[in-house]
Amino acid sequence: MKIANTNGNTGQKANLIIRKPKATDGAAVNNLIADCKPLDENSMYCNLLQCSHFSGTCAIAELNGEAVGFVSGYIVPDQPEQLFIWQVAVSPKARGLRLAKRLILDILDRPSCHNVSQLNTTITSTNAPSQGVFRSVARELGADVKRKVQFERETHFEGAAASEILWQIGPFEREDVERVAA
Predict the structure, then answer these.
(1) Which of 23, 104, 172, 173 could hold 52 in an S-S bridge, CB 3.0 to 4.6 Å?
(2) What is the pLDDT of residues 5-24, one digit of tens each?
(3) CA 50, CA 36: separation in Å to the nearest integer?
(4) What are 114-134's pLDDT values in tens digits?
(5) Is residue 3 in a domain?
(6) Is the peptide bond prior to 171 cis by the omega test (within 30 degrees of 0)?
(7) Which DSSP symbol is given to 76?
(8) Which domain, by its residues, includes 139?
(9) Within a domain: 4
(10) What is the 8-class DSSP label of residue 5?
(11) Could you tell me the CA-to-CA distances from 155 to 39, 87, 133, 138, 171 in Å, in that order?
């Protein structure tokens, strides 16, 4: 668990805690994601599983006891060197704290990601904030970024959603993660 004092948007001192989630965080995560439009909402059950079964590759941030950030991810089956970040949610109350990047780096710094040398995610071409976060993570790690279409609008979403572009960040070394996550 990482604890930091920070000035929140209100100018007051605030306690920010970044930690692994637990099952009792599922409802708070579900509510946070619902408040972070236009993020796709998952079922509460999905969020419960993320907070319990996948807690080693997910991170929650609390500001003065309130959930204000969540990143969900998992180690890609049969590819233990790849961490896939599924979703990043940051409350408007915590914007400007570089929280998304801090949560991602916290996950990468954990023992469960000891063998990870590549970070993957998918981002739509119009999602500039997410592109900025992952570009910044790649820069911090000194890693290259490769992009290609992962899920195509017509083929995979029947035209109902934008194409998802796979961002492959890496390779990077464990030492790079430890240096930037400190």
Answers:
(1) 23
(2) 455 444 444 689 999 999 99
(3) 18
(4) 999 999 999 999 999 999 999
(5) no
(6) yes
(7) P
(8) 16-181
(9) no
(10) E
(11) 21, 22, 28, 29, 30
Type and span of the H or E element at 174: helix 174-181
Residue 9 lies in a domain: no
Residue 141 structure tokens: 């790690």
What is d(CA 50, CA 54) in angstroms, rounded to the nearest whole number? 5
Cβ 66 vs Cβ 80: under 8 Å: no
Q: Is residue 5 part of a domain?
A: no
What is the pTM assigned to this prediction? 0.89
| Residue from 103, 87, 102, 85 nearest 33 by CA | 87
Number of domains in the chain: 1
- Tell me what pLDDT residue 140 has: 95
Tokens (6 digits) for 110: 């954990």
46-50 long-range contacts, CB within 8 A, separation 24+: 48/23, 50/21, 50/26, 50/86
Asked whether 40 and 7 are in contact (CB, 8 A), the reply is: no
Interhelix angle 99-108/174-181, rounded to 10 degrees, is 140
